[in-house]
Q: What sequence folds into this?
């Protein structure tokens, strides 16, 4: 079974998220989403998410593309969820360049062989959380 993993905050589902998840799901047999913890969102974005992690998890669980939702790591850069899950593929959104580079650096140290795939944007001028909810 080929497992795909994706990361994100998903603070208010919109068509861009739906597209990302559907495209990620096509890459394997199972899609597991690592949902950013509230404390991590605060550290990365300088403000808490609009919706708490439980509400965001429930929203993701409703997606027909998602097979499982797990909570992400509490420590930025630990990648414990990746080590635990051992995915075959990790899908990155077009706006996750920094996250992807940090992951590549971690992979170089760990020596893990995981396929990395970039998912193209879906009308980012319309469907981007920072445009819709800030």
A:
């Amino acid at each position: 079974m080929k497992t795909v993993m994706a990361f994100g905050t998903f603070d208010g589902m919109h068509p861009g998220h739906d597209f990302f998840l559907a495209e990620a799901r096509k890459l394997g047999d199972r899609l597991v989403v690592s949902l950013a913890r509230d404390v991590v969102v605060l550290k990365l974005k300088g403000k808490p998410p609009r919706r708490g992690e439980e509400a965001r998890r429930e929203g993701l669980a409703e997606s027909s593309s998602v097979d499982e939702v797990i909570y992400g790591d509490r420590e930025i850069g630990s990648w414990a969820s990746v080590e635990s899950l051992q995915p075959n593929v990790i899908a990155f959104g077009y706006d996750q360049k920094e996250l992807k580079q940090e992951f590549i650096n971690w992979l170089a140290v760990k020596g893990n062989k995981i396929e990395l795939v970039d998912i193209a944007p879906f009308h980012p001028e319309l469907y981007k959380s920072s445009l819709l909810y800030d």
